[in-house]
Amino acid sequence: MNFSIEPFTIDSELYNIKEIRRLYDLFDVISVHKVQNPLLWGLYTLKKNEMEFNDDTYEVNEWLLYHVTATKNVQSIAENNLDWRYTSRCRYGKGVCFSYCPLYANRYASCAIGSTHEVEYDENLMHKLLTMGFPKEAVKKALFFTFNQGIDQATKWLLDHITDHNYAETFVPSRRNFNNEMLVERAFIICRVLVQKIKDISVNYGLNMIPNSFDTALSKNGMVYVKFNDYEFYPQYIVYYREHNVSQYVDKNSYNFNSNQNCYYNQN
């Protein structure tokens, strides 16, 4: 499948996307990327057309919403999309969860991701870099600090750091850097999400679907949108970030976010 994750520079498009600007206010943003996946985009567009055709009495809204995941999942999401089949113990049913509030998305993803999960290295990239002659421990560092994003990024890191005194020494990943901040372990996936008819739901860990007349479930607290059908969302942007110490304790209700009704986003 042809897809790419292209790094963003601080340009006009990035600046005009308020959902990305919010993250700069609340977190230590490391890098921003845009997903280009023609197949997923085509399936998403077809789904939107299908929803409009099946019920033209309700407008099909297109919102940008947040989903937080571990960085090890980014490549798979960019290639295959988010998948409700991997959902485990979701408070509002077995679907893909989104929120318009990044603080809320980060806080509850933190609980799910945990603080001690094992670091995973891309075995294919590891093999290629080792055959190029780079030391194994240096390769581990390169893959860790470039988030397994690709051979070019890892090679550049290895060449940039080749003179480091501990270049080939045993690498033991730590969750904290010299500033005592969390290392990058997660990423915001900012998705286009199709929303037409919403069903309010209470906490229900066993919920597998909602009535066919609805396409989106909304938690009673208004923070979580759940999608149970494929291709009703598209992973548009990826934002790697660190969590500021202070952002762990910010009250999600104290930040002046636009309400979900103002999240409508439409861009050709």
Q: In what order do the strands lie side by side in the largest sheet?
A: 1-2-9-5-3
Rounded average pLDDT:
81
CATH topology of the largest domain: Phosphoenolpyruvate Carboxykinase, domain 3
Estimate nothing, just give the exact number of structural domains.
2
CATH class of the largest domain: Alpha Beta
Main beta sheet strand tally, sense and closure: 5 strands, antiparallel
How many helices does DSSP assign?
A: 8
Tell me the series of helices and strands, N- to C-terminal: EHHEHEHEHHHHEEEEE
Instruction: Provide the gyration radius in Å.
Output: 20 Å
CATH architecture of the largest domain: Alpha-Beta Complex
Q: Which overall shape is indicated by the principal axes computed on the Cα atoms?
A: elongated
Report the count of strand segments. 9
Low-pLDDT stretches are: 175-182, 258-268
Distance between the termini: 23 Å
What is this structure's SSE topology?
Blueprint lengths: L3 E4 L4 H4 L2 H9 L1 E9 L1 H17 L6 E10 L3 H7 L15 E3 L3 H12 L9 H9 L4 H10 L5 H10 L25 E10 L2 E4 L14 E4 L5 E3 L5 E10 L26
Parallel strand pairs: 6-7
Antiparallel strand pairs: 1-2, 2-9, 3-5, 4-8, 5-9, 7-8
